Structures are given as C-alpha cells and as structure tokens.
TrEMBL record:
Pfam families: iPGM_N, Metalloenzyme. Keywords: Cytoplasm, Glycolysis, Isomerase, Manganese, Metal-binding. It comes from the Eukaryota. It is found in: Cytoplasm. Belongs to the BPG-independent phosphoglycerate mutase family. One of its GO terms (molecular function) is phosphoglycerate mutase activity. This is phosphoglycerate mutase (2,3-diphosphoglycerate-independent). Its cofactor is Mn(2+). It comes from Solanum bulbocastanum (Wild potato). The keyword Lipid biosynthesis does not apply. Monomer. Substrate binds at residues 140, 170-171, 206, 213, 286-289, 361.
Length: 559
C-alpha cells in the first residue's frame, strides 16, 4: 500500500450511515460451551450476555477463534490473545509465529539467516543460552521447536549449551512441567553423549520468573535475570527434575509460580550464568511476555531494575518481538508482517478511536490489535488508556480485577462524544480462568458481565452501536476432558483442572439503538471467525472493508 492518502481511503458503505459511536467489546477468554458445573460462564450470573444470546441468529452467533481461523499450525491449536487480537484488528488471517517457526525449522532456513549467524559467532569460545517456556502449549513457545533448535545449533558448532527453563502450567496442565523437563533432559543427555556440554542452568515458574508483560511487575523479570544472568536464586539444585519436584511440594506451589532455582555443580557453583562472549536466544515466538526480558538483555540504558552485571552477548529473539522498537535487533525468524490493520484504516478515514484495558491486557487492544505495533497512528485522533493492574497477586484473589474501572473509563469516553470507536478488553474470564479457581472464575464472569452492562447503557444513551465478542475460549471449560468429553480424574480421584484456553468458538453480538433495523448476521458464512469481525465493524462505522479483508458477517435487508 502506498503512502498517499488515497490508498487509505475506504469506500462508503452503500446502506450504513457514518457517525455512530461504535463500542467494540472483547471479553478475554469467553467461549461458548454446553452449560455444566465446570462452565464458569454458564454457572455465573451473566444477565447481559444471556440477553444478547436471545438475539440469535440475527444479532448473536458463534465464530471460530482457534486453529487455522487465526493462523495457527493445526486445528488442535487453541486460540490465544495474540493471534485472536491480531485477527480481530487486522481482518485477515496471517500465518502466526508458531507456524513460521515450524516452517523455518523444517526447511532449515532458520540457520541461514542473519540472526542465527550472529549467535553462531559465539559458539567457538562462548556458551549458547536458550531462555523460554518449556511446554507444548503452543501459545508462547513449543518444546519440540526448542529440541530441534538445540540439535540444529549443536550440529552447527555449539559446544556448550545452557537452557534456562520456565515452567508453564497455564497453557498446559499444572504438574506437567515434570514431564516436559524429563523430555528436555533426555535430549540434552543425547547431546552430551555426542560431546556437547548441554545442560539446564536455571528455572522458575513463568508467572513468577521472567514472563511478565506490559511492564506490570519488573520484579518478575529481575528474578529471572538474577537466576539466568547472575546465577543467583534462593534455591540450588544439581538436577532440574529434582528441582521441580521439590519446589512443587512447597505450600501453594504450582508450575506457573514455581520459585526460581539455579543448577549448581558438585562445588555448589552455578553451571550456567550468562557471561561476556556468550550467545543468548529467547526461544518464545510470542512477544508480549518476552519484550521486557528483551529490553533488559539488549538496552544499554536501562533503569527498570539493577542488572548488577550486564554481559556483552550476542542476543537474538526467536522472532522480533516489536517491529516498531526493532526489539530485539537480531532474530531467527521474521515475524508475520501484519500491515493495513483496521485500526490504521479507520484512523486514516477520520474515525476517532479510544482503546482501554488494564495493564495485563492493555497491549492486546493496542499492540496486538494494531498488528504488533506500539504507539498511535495519529495522536490527534486516538487515545489509549491503561488502567494499572494489581501486581504481585494471583487474580483469583481479586476476581473483579479492574473491570469496573475499565468500563467506567470507556463509558466516559462514549458519553464525551469525542470518539467514534471505543474498544476495550475485559480480562476477567481469562485471567482468573488461568488460575484454575472455578469459584473465583464464576465471580470473574459476573464482573465482566457487569462491565458489558455499563458500556451498553452508555451506547444506549448516545444512540450508538455495540459489538461484543471474545478472543478465544477459557472460562467456559475448566476441566480436562477425555475424547468423549467426560471430565478426567487424576490418580487421587480429583478432577483435573484446566487452566488453559480451549478450542471452543466465541460469541459475537451486535445491537444498540444506532443499528439499522435491517442489519443482521448473514447465514452464508457458517465458518466465520475472528478475522471476519474487522470488516463487520468497519461496516458499522459506515465503510466498506478493503477487498482483501475477510468478508463481513453482516448484511442489510430492506424491512
Ligand atoms: O500469556 C498468558 O497469560 C497465556 O499464556 C495466554 O493467555 P492470553 O493469550 O489470553 O494472553
Ligand atoms: Mn486472551
Ligand atoms: Mn489467556
């Protein structure tokens, strides 16, 4: 697309007027599944979302939010916020990080690029450190990709390799970290047999060590830095499997929040601090929870915590995590190039835009929505508001999170008449769903519903239009099931709690006094997904979507 103004000009919609305030509400982790006791959404009191469902099929329907519909490698891949918000904002389906890394590994191209060559320069004299999430969740990283990379690096000259493993339990079952570590150890042992000095050097639970996001709590990244770079942690072990097993026995321990540990040798010396002359690869493909570490590793000027020692390293990300900041500068696989997003089109067509969430999801409705791009397209026309999240707690402790504050700020934005689009992410069903606490998740869903109510009332007052949807499932199924759909029990006879997202579709509802009576969901797009939503709200703003966007979900019939 050229840079001339005309290239951005959207055609007028033949039937739908401009000038209506449109609220685009994303309920994070709100899928649709049969009502049952493990469906926190169906158990919760959610009168507003229930009433919208009565509008089916004309004003309420389901759309796909997982697998190929959001650019993931297979139909077994659950949806997630990154790919979900990318699809919602971009209106098209892009092959996502998981898939791009698969392809680069399969073809071997990953080793031909500038990024790998850069880290390879350290193989002769230094250590290769691999930092990332060790699980098969497929949301931020994948263990099979790490194993291929280990093998590939060893074949290409890496003589000393250290893995800094973050345990998951959020995109996968809690407790599964032991098995993933065993798999990793197995492969490292094979490398050792081949003469490569390959070991795990440190570890910790992803939510407590390293993988914070949107600068909510730098202490999380500092804990990781201390273990990974300085070789300092409260717990020392000789064996990483033993480390996980032991630390999981502590009160309230879980994979997500496992305490940081370092692996030490027989003399008690850490086996793998990061030193001058080493290479570092962060092997997560997803950006949000790697950007903070990338800044700590890459920036010379850095004041978020005392790094104590800043090693001179060759650092590359699995992907470039922020295209605007060019962070990190070196990367193994090029990220999807998500251009011409709906946000940019609408702003360039004069649509005044407001976006809001609390810190833990703020980048979802801004950065991910705008195709992994930070900042405004046009400061004069946009306002992005971040409500500070609680930090240092698990969200089941405060399941209401900041839903009310997000809704209030958005309501005020609507009533101010200063904006044509207000978009928001209400995080509760997702963030509390990830804790696996069913009771708290039920409260979380109610809080999200209350938030929707406030927005819908404001839209009612200004004669506007609302579009409510979600980015993927989570709270609608809180139990691991067998192929027949029956809840699975663990060896003690307890149900296995599902902390992760799901494969379920998500609802989409439209309405409000500004919606013309003839507007309804088309019936000829039964497999429509998140990528069809952008064209839909562009129509509600009175524009036709660009021709290469996935088709709109709505039609206008003459009444
Ligand atoms: O990062 C997380 O919290 C989870 O891995 C995925 O959740 P999200 O995709 O909803 O952010
Ligand atoms: Mn999400
Ligand atoms: Mn989530």
């Amino acid at each position: 697309m050229g840079s001339s103004g005309d290239a951005w000009k959207l055609k007028d919609h033949p039937k739908l007027p401009k000038g209506k305030t449109v609220a685009v509400i994303v309920l994070d982790g709100w899928g649709e599944a049969k009502p049952n006791e493990y469906n926190a959404i169906s158990v919760a009191e959610t009168p507003v979302m229930d009433s919208l469902k009565q509008g089916a099929p004309e004003h309420w329907r389901l759309i796909k939010a997982h697998g190929n519909a959001v650019g993931l490698p297979t139909e077994d891949d659950m949806g997630n916020s990154e790919v979900g918000h990318n699809a919602l904002g971009a209106g098209r389906i892009f092959a996502q990080g998981a898939k791009l890394v698969d392809l680069a590994l399969a073809s071997g191209k990953i080793y031909d690029g500038e990024g790998f060559k850069y880290v390879q320069e350290c193989f002769e004299k230094g250590t290769l450190h691999l930092i990332g999430l060790v699980s098969d969740g497929g949301v931020h990283s994948r263990l099979d990709q790490l194993l291929l990379l280990l093998k590939g690096a060893a074949e290409r000259g890496a003589k000393r390799i250290r893995v800094h493993a973050l345990t998951d339990g959020r995109d996968v079952l809690d407790g599964s970290s032991v098995g993933f570590m065993e798999t990793l150890e197995n492969d490292l042992a094979k490398l050792r047999e081949q003469g490569v000095d390959a070991r795990v050097a440190s570890g910790g639970g992803r939510m407590y060590v390293t993988m914070d996001r949107y600068e909510n709590d730098w202490d999380v990244v500092k804990r990781g830095w201390d273990a990974q770079v300085l070789g300092e942690a409260p717990h020392h072990f000789k064996d990483p499997i033993e480390a996980i097993k032991k630390l999981r026995q502590e009160p309230n321990a879980s994979d997500q929040y496992l305490a940081p540990f370092v692996i030490v040798d027989d003399n008690g010396k850490p086996v793998g601090p990061i030193l001058d002359g080493d290479a570092v690869v962060t092997f997560n493909f997803r950006a949000d929870r790697m950007v903070m570490l990338a800044k700590a590793l890459e920036y010379e000027d850095f004041d978020k915590f005392d790094r104590v020692r800043v090693p001179k390293i060759h650092y590359a990300g699995m992907l470039q995590y922020d295209g605007e900041l060019k962070l990190p500068n070196k990367y193994l696989v090029s990220p999807p190039e998500i251009d011409r997003t709906s946000g940019e089109y609408l702003v360039r067509n004069g649509v005044r835009t407001f976006a809001c969430s609390e810190t833990v999801k703020f980048g979802h409705v801004t950065f991910f929505w705008n195709g992994n791009r930070s900042g405004y397209f046009d400061e004069k026309l946009e306002e992005y508001v971040e409500i500070p999240s609680d930090s240092g707690i698990t969200f089941n402790v405060k399941p209401k999170m900041k839903a009310l504050e997000i809704a209030e700020r958005t309501r005020d934005a609507i009533l101010s008449h200063k904006f044509d689009q207000v978009r928001l992410n209400i995080p509760n069903s997702d963030m509390v769903g990830h804790t696996g606490d069913i009771k708290a998740t039920i409260e979380a869903c109610k809080a999200a519903d209350d938030g929707v109510k406030m927005i819908l009332e404001a839209i009612e007052q200004v004669g506007g239009i609302f579009l409510v949807t979600a980015d993927h499932g989570n709270a609608e199924d809180m139990v691991k099931r067998n192929k027949k759909g029956e809840p699975l029990l663990d060896k003690n006879g307890n149900i296995q709690i599902l902390t992760s997202h799901t494969l379920e579709p998500v609802p989409i509802a439209i309405g409000g006094p500004g919606l013309l009576p003839g507007v309804r969901f088309r019936t000829d797009l039964p497999t429509g997904g998140l990528a069809n939503v952008a064209a839909t709200f562009m129509n509600l703003h009175g524009f036709e979507a660009p021709s290469d966007y996935e088709p709109t979900l709505i039609e206008v019939v003459d009444n």
